[in-house]
């Protein structure tokens, strides 16, 4: 204790400890400094807390957005049901009585079409090659029904076989063209399916039906929403010079 007091004296600090005013000021400054340090530390903690909560909120928002998009996609996917079933059975009924061989092949192709739809009901995408194989059976059914009143040209290079497409996209576009346009001997409907560097293109001649068929309005809207969900790119739709054209983004990988 004596040594401590001597040290204080030798440094000329005794007046600060003997003077209550100096002690008060020293204590006040110490409290002020401690308060500022604590305030700073609490502020840092608060910042980290709110940043962490914000990040958690963002993650939750992204999760809910993804789940919502998944739900919307599932709803859209459930709408993929070929509308030509009734017409196909009518065609089959007429074939059975006059051409048994063609009727048998028609049944085979019809089963391939529906097997494809059922097998890929839960798939977001399929290889383009599978879609094209399915399309051959679908086009066969249409050709039996419409004969020379309908022409469908498909020109897709083999190099794109391993790219991806949403199931039944091309079928829906062909169905959409038939639904809204005249298909007759005097006015045949021409549909072309080809590609450029970034899109698969489906185009058809335009001759609108005088009386529109009942429509669920899910064809083009379905395709646009599915592609927005899958790759964030929209289908490009144009209607000019007597040609209706839909450009579908080529999906190389997800």
Description:
Strands 2-4-5-7-6 form a five-stranded mixed beta sheet, with helices on one face. Strands 1-3 form a two-stranded antiparallel sheet. By secondary structure, it is an alpha+beta fold. The longest helix has 58 residues, at 20-77. A hairpin with a 2-residue loop joins strand 6 and strand 7 (243-249). The radius of gyration is 37 Å and the shape is globular. The protein contains eight helices and seven strands. Helix 3 packs across helix 8, helix 4 runs antiparallel to helix 5 (100-119) and helix 5 (100-119) runs antiparallel to helix 6 (128-146). Helix content is 59%, strand content 14%.
What class, by secondary structure content?
alpha+beta
- Percent helix: 55-70%
Detail the poorly predicted runs: 1-5, 7-13
H-E order? HHHHHEHEEHEEHEE
The residue-averaged pLDDT reads 75
Q: What gyration radius follows from the Cα positions, in whole Å?
A: 37 Å
The number of helical segments is 8
Q: In angstroms, what separates the terminal alpha carbons?
A: 78 Å
Which strand order do you get reading across the main beta sheet? 2-4-5-7-6
The largest sheet, given as strand count, sense and whether it forms a barrel, is: 5 strands, mixed
Work out the number of β strands: 7
Strand content: 5-15%
The dominant shape is globular
